[in-house]
Amino acid sequence: MRLKKLILLSLSILLIYSLSYSTNVIIIAVDTLRADHLGCYGYPRNTSPNIDQFAKDGVKFIHCYTPSPLTTPAFASMLSSLSPHKHGAKRNGMSIFNRTKILPQYLKNHGYYSGAFISNYTLKKDLTRLNRGFDTYTEVLDKKRWLNLFLSEGDAKDVSKKASKWLYHNSKRKFFLWVHYTSPHEPYVYHKQFDKGYEEVDASVYPERSHFKKIRKYDTEIGYDDHYIGQLINKIKELGLYDDSLIIFMADHGESFGEHNYFTHGRKLYNSSLHVPLVVKLPANKNANAVVERNVSLLDIAPTILSQLEIPTPDDMEGEDLFNPKSEERVFYFEAYKGAVDSNRGEVFHLKVSPIRYGLLKGNIKLIYDKEYEAYDIEKDQFESHNIYKNPDSEMAVLAGMLTEFISNVKDFIEYSKKYYKQKSKLTKEEIEKLKSLGYIKK
Ligand SMILES: [Zn+2]
Asked: How far is the CA of 252 from the centre of ligand 1 (A)?
């Protein structure tokens, strides 16, 4: 009898231990952040001291790409590990399909409590449905963008403050937290405090850029977010959560400063907007300061989190565990759409939204289809200025065949989803007006 009691006692201790021991997960995301403007990615200016410090505790992926260089599709891909045409939120103002499942839903099945803090109007839950599975989804929209009269953006200071409060209240739970900052998104505001002697951008480093004033402002916006990200990280440390947590730092897309005569992001598939930072700090800072050079994708974030938590990865997820790559020879596909949906033409209109450009990356060869093919060796030609597609050799023909097949698959999938899928399609007049006035329609 006594032995039975002892066994029961040991079992319950074991159960309590297994329930209480868990890895918390935090994603810190900065909107519109070029990887090459961070100190830890080699930028010559000291734009990001706090992010750089954090990166030393993590594994840095120096060649990470977004599947689509626009806010809503990129974050929906991060949370679902599906390409934009597969999750449905293809343009800003569009929601994920009713059937699309995202990370917090999978985590909820394993007892995780999830919270999100977003600071860009386009990520509002009424537009995107990206609140699916989150227990709290806080829209920090307390700042005006451009000369608009309405609040459409969250200040980094408020984002950190609110997220820190959430952490304080939920630090005893098993949690997943996504914190989103948006300062580097245009319009760029100049922050004197973060302008640390920014003379002209070094023309030898960025030969194609002649918009130094813009870049200078943009860089101070990075400094501004970095400062408040530092505060958030301090809070994580203060609460004793830092060491055991899985913390991911990333951006949804970059920003173009005149490369290929294009500014901002969204519609083109050059690396100025596709290349993003990705740092993964593992529990106990395992593999701290390691650098991974192979190509990876934002699609890999959800499978990596699930795998770290020993939760099975759903078969339909397209990405792979960053720490357990299946092969070195991966092919990455890209889709670009117009900015935001511009009208209220109903569900069929939403379902048939199609890419305006397609791309592919294999090794160091990037192929873009924009009415015709263009190809670049991104290792030798960082700015993608020498099209090597002319007179394609057989290897290039194989890649072109792969991209043609992808385009055809996307078109078939869109036809299929038109028939069988559902998604939120009714935008209010106010939402359309707001998206228009934010500049997403014109871009
Ligand atoms: Zn964005």
From this structure: 5
Q: Is 101 helix (H, G, I), strand (E, B) or coil?
A: coil
Tell how far the Cα of 337 is from the centroid of ligand 1, in angstroms.
13
Where do we find the tokens 């959560």?
Answer: 241
C-alpha 253 to ligand 1 mean position (Å): 6
pLDDT digits (tens, 9 = 90+) for 178-212: 999 999 998 899 999 998 665 555 655 565 556 77
Encoding tokens for residue 153? 């953006």
The predicted-structure confidence for 22-54, as pLDDT tens digits, reads as follows 899 999 999 999 999 999 999 988 899 999 999
CA of 268 to the centre of ligand 1 (A): 14
Task: Indicate if the pLDDT at residue 11 is higher than 80.
Answer: no
Cα 265 to middle of ligand 1, angstroms: 8
Task: Tell me the pairing of strands 113-118 and 175-181.
Answer: parallel
Q: CATH class for domain 23-325?
A: alpha beta
Q: Domain segments of the chain: what residues? A: 23-325, 334-437
Rounded Cα distance, 386 and 244, in Å: 46
This prediction's pTM: 0.92
Rounded to the nearest angstrom, the distance between the alpha carbon of 4 and the centre of ligand 1 is 59
